[in-house]
Amino acid sequence: MGLTTKHIQLWLQKTNEKIQENKTYLTELDQAIGDGDHGINMARGFEEAIKKTAESDYESPSDLLKDWAMTLISKVGGASGPLFGTAILKMSMSVKGKAEINYAELTTAFEEALAGILQRGHAAENQKTLVDVWSPIVRFLQENTAFDSAAFTNQAKEAMEQTKDMQAEKGRAAYLKERSIGHIDPGSASSFYLLQSLSEVIEKEGVTV
Amino acid sequence: MGLTTKHIQLWLQKTNEKIQENKTYLTELDQAIGDGDHGINMARGFEEAIKKTAESDYESPSDLLKDWAMTLISKVGGASGPLFGTAILKMSMSVKGKAEINYAELTTAFEEALAGILQRGHAAENQKTLVDVWSPIVRFLQENTAFDSAAFTNQAKEAMEQTKDMQAEKGRAAYLKERSIGHIDPGSASSFYLLQSLSEVIEKEGVTV
Amino acid sequence: MKKLINDPNNVVEEMMKGMAAAHHDVLKHVPDTAVLTRVERTAGKVGIVSGGGSGHEPSHAGFVGKGMLDAAVCGPVFTSPGPDQVLEGIKAADSGAGVLLVIKNYSGDVMNFEMAMELAEMETITVDKVIVNDDVAVEDSTYTTGRRGIAGTVFVHKIAGAKAETGAPLAEVKASAEKAIRNVRSMGMALSACTIPAAGKPGFEMAENEMEIGMGIHGEPGIERTLLKTADEVAEELISKILQDGVHKSGDEVAVMINGLGSTPLMELYILNGKVSDILEEKGITVYKTFVGEYMTAIEMAGCSVSLLKLDDELKELLDAPAHTTAFRM
Amino acid sequence: MKKLINDPNNVVEEMMKGMAAAHHDVLKHVPDTAVLTRVERTAGKVGIVSGGGSGHEPSHAGFVGKGMLDAAVCGPVFTSPGPDQVLEGIKAADSGAGVLLVIKNYSGDVMNFEMAMELAEMETITVDKVIVNDDVAVEDSTYTTGRRGIAGTVFVHKIAGAKAETGAPLAEVKASAEKAIRNVRSMGMALSACTIPAAGKPGFEMAENEMEIGMGIHGEPGIERTLLKTADEVAEELISKILQDGVHKSGDEVAVMINGLGSTPLMELYILNGKVSDILEEKGITVYKTFVGEYMTAIEMAGCSVSLLKLDDELKELLDAPAHTTAFRM
Ligand SMILES: Nc1ncnc2c1ncn2[C@@H]1O[C@H](COP(=O)(O)OP(=O)(O)O)[C@@H](O)[C@H]1O
Ligand SMILES: Nc1ncnc2c1ncn2[C@@H]1O[C@H](COP(=O)(O)OP(=O)(O)O)[C@@H](O)[C@H]1O
Ligand SMILES: [Mg+2]
Ligand SMILES: [Mg+2]
Ligand SMILES: [Mg+2]
Ligand SMILES: [Mg+2]
């Protein structure tokens, strides 16, 4: 069995838990090289997404992803709202009509999500943004044929950690130039929580993708 | 020989020295129960008085006292400017026409100075203002017949210290009500420096009043 | 002390210079004085002069201009200017119809302005005065110094200035100003202290979890030092103390001023106003106009004051009359 | 954190409420949105919408009113509002002649406002945009995020708003706004940090003897962290960096804005202006008008920015045109 609506719901819940737990940490990352609101923004948006998606019974992963995405777009704000919102929205569009999502479909969904992020943010790799987590993770999915939870999480974590040594060229951290080096990019950190949560759901629920 | 123009000049100089030396202390007294500018005000005014009176050769104590007074009135500002200015101005008027000032004349000059202060400030004794130094010192002069430097200084000091236990009813300290108790009144402290300086000049110069 | 200044002993002079440079269409500096005066004079009008210690910007020079003050006298920080400077203000404002001094009730201000009146009379200028004492945080007593003048003074400037602009004689201008004084009450609070530049350190200390209710505009305390409260609680306390004074009652119409003391963000002042407007509605008091911003500050103190001015037809008309100053526009 | 608030998560809603209550003659809150819009509409006029994160008060809602903005969208503190709220602003501002968005150049603002444009187009509202990037503290580069929009944005609001008020079509309003953007340059500095209410602690730390030159309005740093300098030195640095950009030259006429970031006393801003006006005179640049005050703040940050807008006849006329907003009056 691939990823079902239920698994998407669990994914959202787990991500939300991690975001709420790490709200202060994410905000501190953003205080170091941005304007210090990233944890607050993500926590507000995910809390609202939980509330919103609790209102309905969803027929398909796509429907659930859509409400999740639209809530992020509306409630996160800042740079991360449009970016995370667009990513999830593109996934929703990508898996439209499917009751379950298999590995190939998941890979395509991530490809589309990344394309959405790139189009919205006009950022490229190595500019110290969440692109630096999403790009490697898409390559990782493309290079494999089945989901390896541990390896997936590892890849995401490594990518996030690598943003530490980069000099920012997009987003607020870019104003710091060299002074941006030495700090993990906040958007990459929350991207890691999102990806780690997906990985945990797939492993714990015995999803076969 | 009584108090001459030269002695008045020395009095002003000595007072100025003490005010400048204790500028921070006077300001701190005013920070505790006022608005924290008393030392600044007095230091500015006395510095200007020194400058102003250095410009001319004075014929009489009265002329010198007048320029001293007018400079204080103009440059000290706040509550203390009109009060110290009026006090010195009244002295100037009181000793008009005299080349030297004897004990009786000095006593009268102080009486007039106090009257000026009372009329200007509408304060009475025991309201924790400089009146609480000037009133006892006038009584002290009235009760004696010759100037006793040590006793004069003592009397002024004691009067100043007694303001510590008073509750303020005039000036900014009045807003503190009970909380004004326990602090020396700033205007009384600078009055003490003025009186102590006079006493030192009389003693050091061997003035016979 | 962290300030964007050059020389702590020169702040007032440099401020006057920068202000005259910025607003030469509205005000000008009278050379060698502490006076900023109107550029555009209304001939034969009663002159309105205010002032006092500096550090309360935009008070008072920010209210110089058509419809408000004719001259502002800028003393040293928190220190009333001497009578000679007030006299310069009176001279600048006089155009033959006499001058009204709007004085805030502090010993220093009252003494210096009164001495200036005596000097002006010697120069045969007709001068009268009103003394503003709107701060209900302090007990009203004729025996003590009495109540302080705080931000409500700005309403008095507006009313007196508008009345003078009608060409009314000095006695009538004074009567309108006195009506405004009778009808205005204020109270303030503070979250932090302020630093007189020449003193170099804060006037007092307040713990991270404390506030002072009833704070004056020079850091003089008022009613109590308490633990930090919410904006809603602060609104309740300030308004209830103001209303206790008995001037503003159900059925009355008022103008409201939510005044920032220097470093309180406008956002916080508006949050406070949200509650103030609810409370007044509840009490049956109609808000005719609300002014939110920095009108009378205490250098960089964090905190605010609330002022209520009870209005009648005359005061409404005078409040609404045009004013063209750098800090108050109608 | 010492703030006069109720709930850190509710500051923007409560601010909007208090603002609408205070200024119901000028602006109103569109229910269930983050939008404050004009009460008095000019029919058939291009609508001007701005906004972004809150915490910059009076930006942007303080500029809603006749002659400036038709709607301001108030995001969470320092966080651009989402596209749905910007769309609400567009709808509130639209009266059939199209809408111009004035966006400050930050990734978040640009993305959210652009998404809103896409949504508006789906609802067949004509929308165009200009992006303000006046901050010379940041390198101008198309590869990176590029320059930030800071206080110079207020001049763009004024120019666009005045042009729209003439009944000009969207393309012309946009052209005037873009001319203002080409002609305006700014730079800021800070003496202290600020605290986002929901974060509860300052965004960064600065030692008692330090300042940051080139500070942005969200606490993003710019050029360098240096030892405390005098107001004159700061004026020199800000102006020289602005002039280096080559837009303002000897013989030009400019409007100057000395903008306080939140807790800098007006006195200090005027001291700075004294020097700024001297430097400009020295450089042969004529000051047409000067604006001193808080126009675009960073919550309670201490510091300032200086903006210069080069003027031609059109811009002068538009700058001088009437504006009736709560924070900008002409
Ligand atoms: N142009 C961009 N493209 C991709 N990601 C971006 C871009 N700009 C910013 N980001 C991401 O957004 C994060 C900041 O999000 P957040 O703090 O919520 O928004 P804001 O910067 O508006 O305050 C950054 O850490 C970065 O990962
Ligand atoms: N009404 C008054 N009568 C007599 N002395 C007064 C009166 N008001 C204030 N003072 C004196 O003035 C002193 C304060 O002076 P200063 O700090 O220079 O002025 P300000 O209070 O205007 O800041 C007080 O300590 C007190 O001695
Ligand atoms: Mg951020
Ligand atoms: Mg004092
Ligand atoms: Mg004083
Ligand atoms: Mg942000």
UniProtKB/TrEMBL annotation, chains C, D:
Keyword Aminoacyl-tRNA synthetase annotated: no
GO cellular component: cytosol
Annotated keywords: Glycerol metabolism, Kinase, Transferase
EC number: 2.7.1.121
PROSITE patterns for the chain: DHAK (PS51481)
Catalysed reactions listed for this entry: dihydroxyacetone + phosphoenolpyruvate = dihydroxyacetone phosphate + pyruvate
InterPro entries named among the record's database cross-references: DhaK_1 (IPR012736), DhaK_dom (IPR004006), Dihydroxyacetone_Kinase (IPR050861)
Domain of life where this protein originates: Bacteria
Known pathway: Polyol metabolism; glycerol degradation
One Pfam family hit: Dak1
GO process terms (BP): glycerol catabolic process
Domain DhaK: residue ranges: 7-328
First-tier enzyme category under EC: transferase
GO MF annotations in UniProt: glycerone kinase activity; phosphoenolpyruvate-glycerone phosphotransferase activity
Subunit: Homodimer. The dihydroxyacetone kinase complex is composed of a homodimer of DhaM, a homodimer of DhaK and the subunit DhaL.
Main function: Dihydroxyacetone binding subunit of the dihydroxyacetone kinase, which is responsible for the phosphoenolpyruvate (PEP)-dependent phosphorylation of dihydroxyacetone via a phosphoryl group transfer from DhaL-ATP.
PANTHER family the record matches: TRIOKINASE/FMN CYCLASE (PTHR28629), TRIOKINASE_FMN CYCLASE (PTHR28629:SF4)
Protein name: phosphoenolpyruvate--glycerone phosphotransferase
Source species: Peribacillus psychrosaccharolyticus
Gene: dhaK
